[in-house]
Amino acid sequence: MSYLDQITSPTLLISEKITRANIKRMAEKAARNNKKLVPHWKTAQSHEIGNWAKEYGIKEVTASSIKQAEYLCGQGWDNIHIAFPFNPLEIPRLNFLAANQSLSLQLVNPITTQKLVEGLTNPVGFFIEIDAGYGRTGVHIADFGTIEKILRTATQSDKLKFKGFYLHPGHTYYTPDKAGIYEQSRQALHMLKIKYQSEFPELVTRVGDTPGCAVTEDFGDIDELGPGNFVFFDLMQAELGSCTKEDIAVCLAVPVVDVNFERKEILIHGGGVHLAKDVLVDASGNKNFGEVVYLNETGWTIPSDRSYLKSISQEHGLINASDSLLQSVKVGDLLGVLPVHSCMTADCMGEYLSLEGKTIDHCEGKSQ
């Protein structure tokens, strides 16, 4: 039976072939530059896809929350890093997980550090998150007072081990000067390494964002790469130049419920609860919530004449359709939609259907 015969409602499809190619490409880039690849699993959030990653030499992984880390525990990872400023209310849960799994977390202030000193019962590593221009979170690169206070506070506990500095240059998503941002990041982490390496000879520096990691070759003396979205990619990454649309490994299969030839619109069952509401806006102000692909027995094809999702509500999606799509589509058909932001789409859907008809797990799945 074809995977298409299993679909009656919005379903997130995954191409194992494309996913593996994306993982392999990034693993080879890391190896070529003598860096460790520690992918951020906030995109895939899957045991099965994690097993694929291990086949390319990936031994450590990053989570975006303690819930996600808990889901990844017991899967044979050498270490799971929680890349979010740690929430001290979750120390009891952290202690439980750290009894059987090597974990590390992210610190941005001495208050949380002190609470960990007082509450940890099992060893945990930590990175200090650095802000070198993004402005979302982290200790500012010039705030040595806070860095020193975190380090000194941590020495009060034999359970907290300093691992190094973590930097997420997320502003690579918003500016064309990715090379400039990465040079800034390299310099920031190099300066910190020089300053603290004599006291902490084993410290490492890690940088993690897909746009930068995808296009950069010179990472300087950065030790580890931690991108996440590269596993699937999406339309946002294609627009940023991180990938081509052919590299996008997931698409949302959606049923056609109405066709309006006069307005050249197609109504689909597929909206914000399936795709999230990330949007691209072109120079003319047109909104794009996803682009149409044609499904077939082996996956999907990208048409030369573009049709796109012009608006979405909770369950509805409205496609601005090309003439060729209007001529071929009918109510009851299935179309594919490449997502603007694959991480959020996967999180919304909670599982994948492979092109071989196999259900693949996700942290947010209904069975979890």
Automatic annotation (TrEMBL):
From which domain of life does this come?
Answer: Bacteria
Q: Which InterPro entries match?
A: Ala_racemase_N, D-amino_acid_metab_enzyme, D-ser_dehydrat-like_dom, D-ser_dehydrat-like_sf, PLP-binding_barrel
Residue ranges of every copy of the Alanine racemase N-terminal domain listed in the record? 20-230
Would the keyword Signal be found if you checked this record's keyword annotation?
no
One GO MF annotation is: D-serine ammonia-lyase activity
D-serine dehydratase-like domain mapped to chain residues: 249-353
BP terms from Gene Ontology: D-serine catabolic process
Establish whether keyword Lyase is in the entry. Answer: yes
Keywords for this entry? Lyase
Family in the record: Belongs to the DSD1 family.
Q: What is this protein called?
A: D-serine deaminase, pyridoxal phosphate-dependent
